[in-house]
Amino acid sequence: MFGKLIYGQFSLKETFWKFGVLGIFFCALITRCFKSFLMQHLNGISLGTYYTQYFSPLKMDNTMLFLTIGYFLFAFVLCVYCVMVLFGVWRSAAEYDKSIWMRHLAKLFILAVIYAGINFGL
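Above: the chain's sequence. Below: its structure in token form.
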């Protein structure tokens, strides 16, 4: 399925809406949930400060370890998925022959969706 997505073998409508908008929103939402739970346990310390000054993987409790691994794992998944969707929409748009406007609008809007999804999730 992901191979078909990357190579643009789905329709532009399906690639943009199903994989692009809904998929990126879902991945960003899960990443945001892990970030929210992690921020609750940090008691007002920013993530950057925590991971540069206070982070010690050997002295962590299980909850913080789970939230840290979950956050970084889903942040990585979100970034990789955004790249896959970008390639998929770009290639599906190249195959789309009904409207040149829709072809270019899909490319433009997927960039905006990726930007919004990464800003929301991370």
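DSSP finds five helices and no strands in the chain.
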